[in-house]
Structure formats: structure tokens, C-alpha cells
Design goal:
alpha+beta, homopentamer, seven-stranded mixed beta sheet, elongated
Amino acid sequence: MFFQKRHPPAGSRPGTLVIPETAHPPVIRVIDYTVDRVEETEIHDVEELTRFVDSDSVTWIDVHGMGDETLIRRIGEIFALHALALEDAVNVPQRPKTELYERCNLYITRMTRLGDGANVEVEQLSIFLGSGWVLTLQEKPGDIFDPIRARIRAGLGPMRRSGADYLAYALIDMVIDGYYPVIEELGEHLERLEETTLSHDEPQLLAQIYDAKRQLLELRRAVWPQRDAINSMIRDENPFVGETVRVYLRDVYDHAVQVIDITETYRELAGSLMDLYLSTVSQRTNDVMKVLTIMASIFIPLTFMAGIYGMNFEHMPELGQRWAYPLLLSLMGLIGMGMIVFFWRKGWIGPKAKTLAAPRGSSR
Amino acid sequence: MFFQKRHPPAGSRPGTLVIPETAHPPVIRVIDYTVDRVEETEIHDVEELTRFVDSDSVTWIDVHGMGDETLIRRIGEIFALHALALEDAVNVPQRPKTELYERCNLYITRMTRLGDGANVEVEQLSIFLGSGWVLTLQEKPGDIFDPIRARIRAGLGPMRRSGADYLAYALIDMVIDGYYPVIEELGEHLERLEETTLSHDEPQLLAQIYDAKRQLLELRRAVWPQRDAINSMIRDENPFVGETVRVYLRDVYDHAVQVIDITETYRELAGSLMDLYLSTVSQRTNDVMKVLTIMASIFIPLTFMAGIYGMNFEHMPELGQRWAYPLLLSLMGLIGMGMIVFFWRKGWIGPKAKTLAAPRGSSR
Amino acid sequence: MFFQKRHPPAGSRPGTLVIPETAHPPVIRVIDYTVDRVEETEIHDVEELTRFVDSDSVTWIDVHGMGDETLIRRIGEIFALHALALEDAVNVPQRPKTELYERCNLYITRMTRLGDGANVEVEQLSIFLGSGWVLTLQEKPGDIFDPIRARIRAGLGPMRRSGADYLAYALIDMVIDGYYPVIEELGEHLERLEETTLSHDEPQLLAQIYDAKRQLLELRRAVWPQRDAINSMIRDENPFVGETVRVYLRDVYDHAVQVIDITETYRELAGSLMDLYLSTVSQRTNDVMKVLTIMASIFIPLTFMAGIYGMNFEHMPELGQRWAYPLLLSLMGLIGMGMIVFFWRKGWIGPKAKTLAAPRGSSR
Amino acid sequence: MFFQKRHPPAGSRPGTLVIPETAHPPVIRVIDYTVDRVEETEIHDVEELTRFVDSDSVTWIDVHGMGDETLIRRIGEIFALHALALEDAVNVPQRPKTELYERCNLYITRMTRLGDGANVEVEQLSIFLGSGWVLTLQEKPGDIFDPIRARIRAGLGPMRRSGADYLAYALIDMVIDGYYPVIEELGEHLERLEETTLSHDEPQLLAQIYDAKRQLLELRRAVWPQRDAINSMIRDENPFVGETVRVYLRDVYDHAVQVIDITETYRELAGSLMDLYLSTVSQRTNDVMKVLTIMASIFIPLTFMAGIYGMNFEHMPELGQRWAYPLLLSLMGLIGMGMIVFFWRKGWIGPKAKTLAAPRGSSR
Amino acid sequence: MFFQKRHPPAGSRPGTLVIPETAHPPVIRVIDYTVDRVEETEIHDVEELTRFVDSDSVTWIDVHGMGDETLIRRIGEIFALHALALEDAVNVPQRPKTELYERCNLYITRMTRLGDGANVEVEQLSIFLGSGWVLTLQEKPGDIFDPIRARIRAGLGPMRRSGADYLAYALIDMVIDGYYPVIEELGEHLERLEETTLSHDEPQLLAQIYDAKRQLLELRRAVWPQRDAINSMIRDENPFVGETVRVYLRDVYDHAVQVIDITETYRELAGSLMDLYLSTVSQRTNDVMKVLTIMASIFIPLTFMAGIYGMNFEHMPELGQRWAYPLLLSLMGLIGMGMIVFFWRKGWIGPKAKTLAAPRGSSR
């Protein structure tokens, strides 16, 4: 889960691609559309791609898997990708960013999906936006873009009427929207943790709070730079992004800022939760100590008194008295009662001695 | 209470409105006024609104409830609202912001009200400001704007003489002013919490401090972006906001900054309160431990001594001595006194042993 | 002590003045001076003020108390104060700021005074600077400006030779200088708290540290915005402030920054003090526990041994032995000594067992 | 490990070089190349360097060791290095920075290497970039640049075809890439620490967490200024760095930002780890206290009861009863059971009483 | 040690000098030099200074002590110092800053010296830089500038050939360089504190860590503003500072930034040390509790069992059995062993029960 960058051996020349043995073989799917028609194909011979470079239609080349360096390099050549751009796309993870090259604009993002058991899966997605084409590159098969494909096929809305920049916007928009379920899940998780912290005494809470904090840090690291990247696509001069799409990107920008806002809020809450846990444990230790102190304070003096009259001295005049035993018992009872009254007054026992078990009933 | 955004299914096309089944049906009220007259109507047929779009009067269209997508969309068409603007207004919560479109200026804010039991109710309010009209959209019926309606009817002050921008300013001003009672309530709550923390030992305090912190975070998240939004309405070029109203907005801006200031101060105080609680509990544990240690240190050695002479050895010469018992008792008394003196000197008992019950009497 | 703003009922029109029933009736004092003469009068009929508006002399109109709305409003009319400016001056507290209007420049500040018992009194002071006049407004009678009046009367220094802007500067300078005794008092208070924290075990320390922190937060909230306000008077175009006075204001600015600097430093120290207290209490609990553990560890096993030979079994061969009792006593002594040696080695008793009572002797 | 700067005696004139007695004698290696040829020589007479200053080829003069002030000064003269630039290179450590002089551009960086046992070795490297030459200066023999030498010799890639600025870029790129293994190692270390914190109770963890925090602070101090330095090489006017190389430097910049990002994330995690440790220890103390309290609460009252009937009063009617002993034993059993039930209900014993030993099994 | 400003009585007119009774009488030393000659004199009649104001040589007027207001004022007149500039120089402490006046540039700094016993002595030094002269003012006799005097006399290096700005630079450079020994001392102090925190249990550590934190805060407050001051001397238009000297000042700027960097790092470390101390104490309390719990858990049940058979019931059949005593002893032994095994397994005793005494042996 911790950071592990796939980087070339130190000192490699720039543009070196690092592809692990276990990488998925690339699957290339192409959707080519104009207002009037949609063509979907799976490409098996990479050279077929050349015909999409300068076509009038909008083409989305979608590559899943990077297990073939020659093929990836050839794609790079066909679309005239800068060596550094290709390296950034392949040697994951890269920090999210946007970078403008002569022939295309690269947007690197991190795509999240809520997997089973609230597991957050994160994967780098590289979106190359050229004139008339969008090339997306990702490592593992499977993505979250089926709704976009459906919209292309359906031909409703502005998608088919717009250019490649609108398609790129739609992809970025989906990626950012994909963060909402994740933060909502994390929010609910924090709420559950808070409730448990206050009512139970479970040590694994600590691990969970720490984990939540770590996930929020990850999230922040993923979203924060995207805010800047989107902003630079809105503000900077960029031949590949039209005015209309910039208005839409402003909307995506707002969402990214909202995600950051909430992430920061949750991060503060997670920090407070850790403090809350510590205070709760301290409070519980205090409660435990009180039980011990009450028990010990009541019985230790009494035991001592019993010990006195358990001594075997020959000359202990009290021992022979008839009233001595009941008197002593009464005295012990009085002392015990006194102690109880003392602790009652201190609020350690009785109605004021609330413990942490169910504290929130009426307080909210 | 945690963040839950109403967002369209991932991959929907931009402008998709998400309206839950349980949404209130929209109620449209219109106040149309010039210097000379005021007309208040409740609109039942949405097409009636068309006549207000280009009228010379100032029109406030006030929509409560969003439970009719067709109607909402039709309103959007009548006033030529951008699809994204409408989406932001409907798919709550949106981050507060201002956004300038061709035909109107959108200001999204969060309206707060102190409900029963110091409960803070927060709702998104979207204010569209066009030329000659203001359109406000909110989810639930009921708002805080009756005083403004009264001012419009009364016709005193600059309201009736001014344009739609003044009306928008008045609404934003009221929203920001609405934060004052909330932070004052929170401030008093913090003060009560502080007092209780120092004098009582109630575990639910923890939950309450944590809660206060969370509310302050919410508040900050609501007000902070409004500062920027108002500032951009003051500084940016904007055909819908006149020079005179910008001076008034500067005043609102100052109030927003003041609210943020106090929120931040309270947030720091809430953080310190958590530390205070922890220190207080530690201090109390210390006090509990002292009681235990004193009791145990006094009586455990004495019990041991009694135990010695409770042994049944045949040859224990002391047992037969007359003076042995009183001597031992005296010795025990001396040891006990010694212990008490020892702890007195250490300041654990006696006048120096102040506990946390009532610490602040003279110290302030 | 917590924030309580006097704000008009929500929805009032801008410029509404909120004056409590208990407000002091206004007392108006005027000092009018040129290089050659000084005239001091107390004004009883507000209309007398009109003659000072356009006079060639410099006039300081000093209003204490706001308990007469008509009068305050009339003053506003005479000096052509903007409705919002007057509202800011009356509805206290306002965030310190400077605001430039057509006919005057408003500077809102917070005046502090060290009262009895190191009590910090804070009051809002509004300084209106017009051409040829300065109008100051404050709520309660009494101020810190007698030295300035003396300087005007004495006619030494540049005061009488300079314009109204110099007078305004002199007032602001005094307000900022008034923070020095307050922070110095707070600094000494922190130093005393630190010393007490390390040497004593007093629970009210917590309340005091928390209080100091709160006062520092208040102070910061009062000074921080003044830095910006002064800076904007130095840098912004402003017809009421001359070049010469801007040089003087730079000096005030430096002082404001110094006050902020020290406030921030003290705030950090107060935060550390809270940590220090917590650590100290933990250390003390540790010391208490050691006493208990030592007592218990020594005597509990011995008591058990005594208990063994206090049993009444008929067949306990040791009981009849002559040497058994002294042997057992010796054994007990040995065990006790062993325990003491064990704890000595652990450093819990003996010279290494320093406690917190007087820790700093040679360490500084 | 703490900061120790080699600075000249206070008041020395600028440009004073401080070379310790133990410094390595300088070894000068030169690689001189054009597209067509590569020449590698070790220089023994410093004057030989003069021929490289204005040659058409690209020359990399690589100096390891500074133990000869005359020689270092002569090198400075040959390449016309500014006295302050040379001082910065020799009096290590200097803060990483870039500085533009008339005849060359100085880039000071910190080179890291993972030594044995995850030991991070850090050394200052100074890169002087002139027109046609790169001069690198470092204190100790040995560097991480062998792959670059290999690339020069091999003549593949753009290296041989490019100028001195490309060589400088390649060196900086390698230095930044050298941080990745270090942060990855630190990340794994943190993960191990986290796991151990949650499952074991080892005091040296504290030292290790503290150490990790310190290393991260060091790292941040090394990388943070390099971000600015690289940025200023990209943005500022600089005759020594061409347009093409600036594109490459953008890539290095991104890597530096990524390293900073991860360092900050780890620093936050290390901070949380310290909190985690504290909470864990508190939780464990709580567990220990429970064991003690349970044992004491069960047996102390029972011991007292036994003590009662161990008293030697002559008139204790129960003592003679046949049923008294078994009755008392039963009563004791009941009381013991009652206590156990009481603690069971409180969740201190039984299945709910999870301790910290293995908390994370299913929770992830 | 805490902040104590010497400020004039509130309301004094600007330029009021505050000189305490105990101030040292001023000693004025002048060094006047050109490339060819050096003249050093001690001035007794202040009027002699007039001849240096417009001379062609460079003059350094060095005033130690301020105990003569007339004389100080006369110096101010001779060099045409602005009243506010003189006030800033005399009413110490002033925040470090640079301020440009018509006739000179004022640089206020804080000079540090490591006194005996690592005591840091801080004093304000005011450097007035005019055309052809430098005037330095300080309160107490003694400074750190002897090496500069030596360099002037020796006539080596650029000092004698350069103007007054170079002299001012040399002074500032020395002041900044003077911070290095201080932070190095503090760094070593922190390292020692860290080691002691981990291996010993000394309460005065707390006071020392707190002290170190305070000193670091002081240091930061001294250096931070100097960074800005130096920067403004480099960047701003300033007739008194030449181009060449600005290059040198860039070097001083870098050093100031480095000092700030390390101060911040140390401040974070000091904060972590406080956490470390707290965790260490908690860990130790935990260790103490374990000893107590083990002792009590083993012997309390056994004592209870012994108590049972110490009862004096007449009908206790076991008492008469031959095997009862050895059986009970064996049982007790078993129970004791069982407890020991239980705690061994829990890791509280035995090889796993490492305590904090010597934790770092192999872990680094």
C-alpha cells in the first residue's frame, strides 16, 4: 500500500520504459465517431492506428495493459508522443499533472474505484489529448468509463457533436466524480469509528483510525495536484482545449476542490479521533483505577484490624471481652460505610459515577 | 451529518439533475416591484414566469422544493440558465462559489438557521442574478428572508429604489448575518464545556467536544469559500453587479471574514479543550492513585506486622510479654503517623493536596 | 468573554444602528487647533459641530458613549459619513480594518488597557479621518489619549504644525503601543505558569494555561487585521493621508508586526506549556505508582509468608522448631533487603530517584 | 548526524575556503566528448585543464576530494569561478540552490545513496555549468554516476549529440532519482514500525520512530530547496541552459515535487505513529490495570473475611458451628463468582476483553 | 528572558528616546580608511565626527553604549538620521528590518554570541549606511567584529578597495555567521536530550526540552525577519548599496535561509522530543504497573489461601490431616508457577520484557 515507484535503473537515459514481467499484454480498443456514425473496433495490428491520426472523426484509443514495450513505443511513434510523456505514462506512479507538448496535451490522473469490502483501488490513467484523438493508457484491464461509451453510442447530448477535448473532459470528469463514493465511504467509516471509540474498548480501533488517516493522506496526494492540473488546463494557453470545454472544466475544477475540502475535513477529524481514543483510554484507566482504589481502600484497613486480633499475644485484654467481637464488627462496618460515603461524595460511586459505556444518549 | 453528495450516476452527461423521490414539490412565489408598486403572487403555471424575464421591474422568483424535474428544467429554459449552473443548484451540496455565465451570475451559498435545541440546520441556497430578476432555489420550504420581504413591501430604505443586484446583496447579507447566532451559540457551548471539563468528570464531555469540533469544521467549510466568492463579485468584472452594490458587498465581505476569524479561534479553542480534558483526566487518575497509594502504604506494612504475631510458632518470646501488645500497637501507630507525615510533606495530603473539583475560584 | 456581536435583527436594512438600552449617553469633546492656538470645548448642542467641518484648523471630535441614536445619526450627517461606516462604528465589535469612503477614511481598531489585576480591557475605537478633522467614536467613557491632548496643548513637536492625518497617526500609534504592556504582562504570566508547572502540582494551572491561550488568541484576532489595515493606509491611494505621515505609519506597522510576532511566539509557548503540564502529571503519576509498587512488592510477599505460619494445621513441623521463628524473620529481612536492592538498581529509590519537586536547580 | 557546518572563522573575508586536515586529496577525472569521439583521462597536472575551457567539445571535469586548497583555487581560476561560488562548493553543507554567475551556473545539490543496513549517506555535490563544460565537485571519492559515464561512452541516446546543459541535466536527474530508493526504504521501515507498534510492546520502537522522523526532516531539508532551484533553472533567463533541456528539467522538477509529496506524507504518518504508540501504551497500561484490579477486587474482600475468622476473640459464636466453615467457603465462592460476573459484564474478562496482541487480523 | 521592550511612555511623540539610568556611557571609535591608509581614533568630542560626513574616505563610526541622550541626539543630527530611525536604534528591542531613509539606510539586526556555559547572548545592533560612512550603534560594550577590524588594517582582500556598502555587508555577514555556532550548540543539546530521554528518567529533562524550544522560538524570531530585510536590500532600489555588494548579499541571504531551515527542523525535533518524553514516561508507568500487577497477582491469592487455614473454626477437617500442609504448599507453588507462566506468556516477564533502560543498542 505504501509508495513504490516503478523507476528505471538509476542513470538510464530519459524515456526509458520500465515494464515488469508480469504486466498485462496490451489490449487496444478504438471508438471512432462523428456526429453521424460510431465505429468500435479492437485493434490487433498496431499499424492500423495510423489511419486515425489525421482523420476528421474523433477517435478514442483505449489501451489497457502495458506488457509489450515494442508495441507501446510504436504507439508513441504513431501519435508523435514525446519520449518523456510516454515514460511518465508507463513508469507509474506519476504525480497527477498536466503537461503540454507540441503534438498533444498529457493529463495524468489517478482513477479510484470502490472494490469489494470498501477496498479502494487506485490506478494511474494517462490521457493524451491530440487534435482529433484521445489516447488513454492504463495498466490493468477494466475501467469506469462504460457510461461514457454508452453516451457515445447513444449519440444524445453534446458528446458526438463535440471534439476530442469534450471527450477528454468527460473522462476527467468521471475520474473526479469517482472520488465521491470513496470519500463518502470513508466518511461513514469515520462516523462508525467515532461511535465505536466512545462506546467500546477495542484496541483494533487504533489500527483502523490510523489506516483511515493513511487512506486520507493517499487521497489527498491523489486529488490535490489534479486541482492544479485542471486549473492549468482552464487558464493556460492550450491549442487542444476549446473555450466551451473550458467552461465544463471549471465545473470539474469545483468538484476537485470540493473533494479536497472534504478530504481535509476528514483528515482533521481522523486526527481528532486519535486524540479522542487516547482520552477515552485514559478515562477508562481512570475508571479501572477507581474500582481498585475503592476496593482496596475499604478492605485493606479492615483486614489490618482483623489481623490485629489474629495476633497471638497472651495479654490482649480485649480478646476476652464478650462485647469485643460484635463491637469490632460494628466498627468495621462503620469504617466501611464511611469509606463508601467518602467515595460517594467524591463522586466515584453512585449516580454521578458515569462511565464511558453509553455516554451519548441524550447529549446530542 | 457527514458529507453525502447527491451526484448523478457516474458518467452521466453534464447537466444531469438528481432529484430524490422524496423531494418537496416546488412552490414558486414571485415578488415583482418597482419604486411605485409591489406585486406578490404564487405561480402555479410555470409559463407565467416568462413575462418577468424582460420586464422593467425587479422580480424575485423564489422556488422552494425541487420535486419536479420538468418544471425545474423549464424554469432553467425561461431564464436561460446554463445546464451546469442548474446542475450545481439542484445536485446539492455544492461548494459555495460564484460563477459568472452569459445571462446570469450564480451565487451558491449555505444558509444556516439555529433550530430547536441549538441544532444547526444548514441548507444550500442558489441565487441566480440576471438583469432585472433574482431567482432563488432551495430544497426545503421555509427560509430566513421574511424581513427582506417586509422591507420590499414597506418601501423604506434603498431597496425599492435599487436594482436586482441590491436584492441579491440583501439576500447574501442575510445569509452571512445568519452565521452570527450560530457561532455565538457555539461559543457559549464551548464556554460551558470548558467549565464542565474543569469541574466535573463526565465522559460524555469528550463526545461533545468532538462534536463541537466537527461542527466548527462544517462551519468553516461553509463560510471560507464564501469569502472568496463575495470577493470575486466585488473585484471581477461583472455586468450584473453595479458599483454601488459593490460597496455594500465589501461590508458583507468584512462580516464573512469576521465569521471565519471567530470560527478559526473557536476551532483552536476546541482543540485545546481536548488537550485540557486529557490533562484533567490524567490529573484525576493521579489523584485516584494517590488515595490508593496512601491507603496501601499505611496499612500494608501494618498488616504485615500483625501477620508476624499471628504466626503460630511455639517459640516466639515476645508473645508472652505483657508490654508486647501495647508496644506493638504504639509502634504501629508511630509507623502509620510516620507515613502520614511522609505523604503530608510530599503534599499528597493536607491543605496542599488540592484536587480538580473546584479549581477556578480565585484564580481568574 | 467570548465573542458576542451586537448585530441588528437579521434582515434589517444596511445602516441599522443597534444601541443597547444601557449605553452611555454621548459626551462630545472637541479640540480645535492650528499652529498658533488651541481651543478645547465640550459640545452640548450637536449643531455646533458644523462649523468645524470646513474650517482651516485641525479638529478632533472625540465622542464617548453612543446612547443617543438621533445624535449619532446627526453627527454622521454633519460629517457626511457613509451609512455603512457609521454602522461599523456603532455595531461593535467589528473586525479591525481600514475602509476608504468618498469623504473620509475609517480606521477601526481595538484599544487595550491593562486594568486592575492584570485584567485586559478591550474596546473598539473608530477613527474617522476627513480633511481637517478627526472624529473618534467609542462606547465607554475614558481613553488612553491624555498624553496626546497634552502634546497638542504643549505645542511642542510636529503635532500642531501637522494636519489631521498626523493626529490620526498619533492615535493609531498609541493604540498599537498600548499592546506592549499587555503582551509583557502575558509573557510574565506565562513564565510564572511555567515555573509553577514544573515545581507544583496544582490543578488550577490547567485553567490558567487555557485562559492564557485564549487571551493570546483574542490578542491575535485584535492585532493581526490591524497590520493589514495599516499597510493598506501606507500603500493604497488615499487623499487623506500625506506622504510624511505614511513614513510615520511605517513605524507603526513595524510595531504591529512585532506585537504579532511575540503573540505568535507566546501562543506556541502556551501550547507547549499544556504539553508540559501533561508530561509533568504523567511523570508524577509514575512517581506515585513507584511508591505503591515498592511498598506492595516488599510487604505483600512477606505478609504471605507470615500468613503461611499463621495457618492452624496440626502438622506443621516448622512450628515447633526453636530456630524457625528467628530464621523466618531473617529470611523476611533478606527478602525485603533484596527487594530494596532490586528497586535501588532499577533507580526507583535512592539518589537517582529524583522527583519533580525541584528539578531546575542547576540545569539552567 | 545533526547539522554541522564547515564555516570559516567568523569574520573571514568572503571566499575563504575551509578545508579540514583529513580531507581526501583531489582526484580529477575528465571526460571530453563530441558526437564522434570520447576521451577519458585522469588529470595530474591541473594546468592541463586550461585546454578544455574553450574547446568545442563537451567536457566533464569531475573532482573528488578537496584536500588541496591551492589546486582547488587554481581550478577556480581556470574556469573563472566566482569566489563566493567556490566557497559555497567547498564549505559544506550548503543549502541546495542554483545561482547564476557571469561565466557559469552553479547548482548545489545533495546526493543520497543507500549504504549498508539501510544507512542513508548524503553528500553535497556542486555542479558548475559553463559553456561547453561541466565541473562537478564533491568531498569524498565515489559517486552514483557510472551509468552516465557508460551512456557517454556508448554514444546512444541524445547524450553525445547534446551540449553541456544536457550533461548537467542528466546529473541532476540522477541525483533526484537517487532519492526514490531512500524514500521507498523509509516507507517500508514505517510500515514495519506500524506493524510492530500494534503487535508488540518494544520500547526501542520509540527511538526508531523518532529516528525515522528525523531522517524525513533531513530529507525534506535536502529536497525542498532543490524544487525551487530546478524551477528557477527552468523559468529564469539563463544563457547556459537551452530550451530543449528545459523541457527535460520540467520532468526532473516533477520528480522532485513527487519526492517532496511523499516525504510530507511520510512525515505525517511518522507523527501519527508516535500518537499511535502513545495510545497503544496507554491501552496496554489499561490492560495491566485491569488484571491487577480483577485480582485485587476478588481476593482482597475474601482475605478480609478469612481474617475475621482468624481473630482470636474468645466469644465468636460462629466458630463453634459445624456449618460455619463450609457456609463461609460457599459465601466466599459466591462473592468471587459475583465479582467475576461483574467484571465479565463490564467486558474486562471473557471474549470481549480483546487485548492489543493481535488486533488486525480481520479488520483490514 | 521573556520579551521586554524599552518603549517610551505611551503617547510620547515619535522619536522619543528611552535610555535607562544604568546605560553604559557611549564610547565612540572611528576607523577611517582609503585604499592607502587607515586611521583609528577614539572620539571624545562628538563634534569631531562632522569631518567624516562628507569625506572621500570610508568611515566606520562605532558607538558602544547609549547612556548620554544629548550625545546620541547630536550624532543623529551630524549624520542627518531620521528621528524614527534613531528611535528604533535606541529603544531596543526592535524587530530586525531594513528601512531606507533619504540620507541613509538603516539595518537593524540581532547579534548573538555564545557566552559561557552555552549561554546565548543576544543584542540589538543598528547599522546605518550612508554615502561614505557606516555608523553602528549597540548598547553594551564588546562586539564580534575584531576580525573585520583586522581585515581593514591588513588591507588584504577587497575591503579597503571597496566602499561603505561593502563594510556594511561584512558586518551583516558576520552577524549571520554568528548564528551558526548557536544552532550547532542547540543541535548538540537536542541530541543529548534525546539520548537522555530514551535512557534515563529525569524530570528536569522536561524543563530542558521546554527551554530548548523557547530558545529556538527566540532564534527564529531573530532570524526570520532578517531574511526579508536582506532580501529587500538586494532587490529594492537603494542608492547606498552597489551592484557588486548585492551579489555578496545574496550569499548572506542564503546563509540566513539556511539558519532558518535548521531552526525550523530543530523546532520540529524539539516538539517531537516532548512527545517522546511523554511516551517514555507512559511506557515506564506501564513497566512499573507490570511489576506491581505481577507481585500482587501472585501473592494476593496465595495469601488468601493461607488466610483460609488461619481461621479458627473448630470444624475444619483439613486441619487435622497430615498431608494437608504439604499439599497446600504444593498447591500454592503450582498456582504461583501458573501465574508466572501466565505473565511469561503475556511477555511481561522473561526475555521479551525489555524495558526502556538501554533500548537503542542494535536498533540504529
